[in-house]
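Can anyone check this?
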Amino acid sequence: KNKKDVKNKKEEDKETRSDKRKDLKPEDITVRVLNESGINGAGAETAEILKGKGFKISAVGNGETQTREKTVFAVPESAADLFYGMPFDCVITLNDESTQAVLRIGKDYR
């Protein structure tokens, strides 16, 4: 292949990723909610907020700890823009999933 073919392939890949990113909607993303805050009901409350925004909830439960300080949302890079502006404080990190996000609720939830 010549350099032009390689460059065009890279541009096509970039456009394809960009198109996928634009096409993702909240209803395309499944969220697993883990309450690690020790705050009773925080997981269910947050799941309802996310459902109201159109996200699908795959599970709500307690996490491995009940002493997490910060709320962390691990989200697909292709859908990261969908998670900004949540009505609760959270740190957004990227995961390697295509349509699965995990919310770990911390003590900063309220």
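Reply from J.R.: I decoded it. The chain is about 30% helix and 25% strand.
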